[in-house]
Design brief:
By secondary structure, the protein is α/β, with parallel strands linked by helices. Helix content is about 40%, strand content about 15%. It has a 7-stranded parallel beta sheet with strand order 3-2-1-4-5-6-7, with helices on both faces. A 6-stranded parallel beta sheet has the order 10-9-8-11-12-13, with helices on both faces. Strand 8 (about 245-250), helix 11 (about 260-270) and strand 9 form a beta-alpha-beta unit. Helix 4 runs parallel beside helix 5 (about 130-140), helix 6 packs across helix 9 and helix 11 (about 260-270) crosses helix 16 (about 380-390). It starts with 11 loop residues before the first strand and ends with a helix. Belongs to the UDP-glycosyltransferase family. This is Glycosyltransferase. It comes from Acer yangbiense.
């Protein structure tokens, strides 16, 4: 167990427990930053050893944050050394949660020996249902955080039936939360969805706090090492003389394309003639990642970059040279694309990706669907045309997307809906939970 420096004086102490997946840890970090800058909170973040590096930027900005590092418990269905969902497939989601839940006893020991223990546990609503057993033992409150949007929450509790399941346990336990924060904003999803969730929770302590802005802390890597250093990547983008002329291709920290998908995507990028950045997964001992097409990098030298390993995605998407983004449509990536103002090309593959695409492509018309499904193979000729068209400034989807972006940026400005929601959450947390 490792513990870094804690803040002094009287304040509200919260233990944060993110689900061990990059797409969940990072928005937790961004939210923690927003909470800390408002003052009056002591925060401890629980991580396992291989996930400590995610906190580097946060702790460098806020050295008073404590880090509680506990070894990741073993599980018969999880390969030795795996501590993050990015190293396994979606089939391991429940197993990771079950293994992570074995940290209850070490957390209880830490809690009872702490001179000023937490008054609440702030946890990932989606995949940490075991924390409700923990708070019951400790006699404290649970605050939930949804890294996804309100619509996905609706989808979750709409399908609860009498058959016990991991998913139904998650949703039913959410009702016990003292409060719930959602990485979305009312101008996107409307008051009705948030009011519906309040009805489900049977209280009004539900806040839309997104889109959460990725924190920046000098040269601290946000998620891990990359084959192309960030300064070199930014220099390459700076050399692109035309704004919105680069296509970025990335599928998050978990999705891995098969050989046929890699070939179709490579052919489309090569034939399109557009400048591009393609994020490709590193190999893992237990997950074989197909290589990019033979000779591809030589044939596109100067026009395209292939980056292996972690990619500074938020930096890429915020650069004026980047015009479109082929994405799996995970919510974190959607919001990064929204903040960056790049047109999204949707290839939804699993979990919330489909409902995100339904909302933004079908209902709002602010993005373009290019393919669908985890094993689907896109048509190279069609994809090539989409790449070429996607960097045009007059695409109707881009125009509509930029209008939504303006609403998002207004929501997180001082006085905006999400900004005020975070203020209200901190106020209620300090006044109500300390009394409870």
């Amino acid at each position: 167990m490792q513990k870094m420096s804690s803040s002094s004086g009287k304040s509200t102490h919260i233990l944060v427990i993110p689900y061990p997946a990059s797409g969940h840890i990072l928005p937790h970090i961004d939210l923690i930053h927003q909470l800390v800058i408002r003052g009056g909170l002591d925060i401890t973040v629980l991580v396992t050893p291989k996930n400590v590096h995610f906190l580097n930027s946060l702790v460098s900005l806020h050295p008073t944050i404590e880090t509680l590092v506990l070894p990741f418990p073993s599980h018969p269905n999880i390969p030795a050394g795996v501590e993050n969902m990015q190293d396994v497939t979606i089939d391991s989601l429940a197993d990771i949660s079950i293994a992570f839940g074995q940290l209850c006893d070490p957390i209880i020991h830490w809690f009872r020996s702490h001179p000023c223990p937490p008054i609440a546990i702030f946890c990932d609503t989606l995949f940490n249902p075991w924390t409700h057993r923990l708070v019951s033992t400790l006699g404290i409150k649970t605050i939930g955080f949804m890294p996804t949007n309100a619509q996905f929450f609706f989808n979750c509790f709409s399908y609860i039936d009498s058959t016990p399941s991991f998913a139904s346990e998650i949703t039913l336990k959410t009702k016990d939360n003292w409060g719930l924060l959602i990485n979305s904003f009312t101008e996107l999803e409307g008051d009705d969805k948030f009011n519906g969730i309040k009805g489900f929770m049977k209280h009004d302590r539900v806040w839309g706090v997104g889109p959460l802005i990725p924190i920046k802390a000098g040269n601290k890597e946000r998620g891990g090492p990359s084959s192309v250093p960030a300064d070199e990547l930014m220099a390459w983008l700076d050399s692109c003389q035309v704004d919105k002329s680069v296509v970025y291709v990335g599928f998050g920290s978990q999705i891995r394309l098969n050989k046929q998908q890699m070939e179709a995507l490579g052919n489309a990028l090569e034939k399109s003639g557009v400048r591009f950045i393609w994020a490709v997964k590193n190999d893992h001992d237990h997950l074989v990642v197909p290589l990019i097409p033979s000779g591809f990098e030589d044939r596109v030298a100067g026009r395209g970059l292939v980056i292996r390993g972690w990619v500074p995605q938020a930096l890429i998407l915020s650069h004026p040279a980047v015009g479109s983004y082929l994405t799996h449509f995970g919510w974190g990536s959607v919001l990064e694309g929204l903040i960056g103002g790049v047109l999204l090309l949707a290839w939804p593959m699993q979990v919330d990706h489909f409902s995100n695409a339904t909302m933004l492509v079908d209902q709002m018309g602010v993005a373009i669907r290019v393919c669908e499904g985890l094993t689907s193979v896109p048509d190279s000729e069609n994809l090539m045309k989409i790449f070429t068209e996607s960097i045009k400034e007059d695409r109707p989807e881009r125009i509509a997307w930029m209008k939504l972006r303006e609403k998002a940026l207004n929501a997180i400005k001082k006085g905006g809906s999400s900004y005020k929601a975070i203020d209200d959450f901190v106020t209620q947390l300090q006044s109500n939970l300390m009394i409870d």
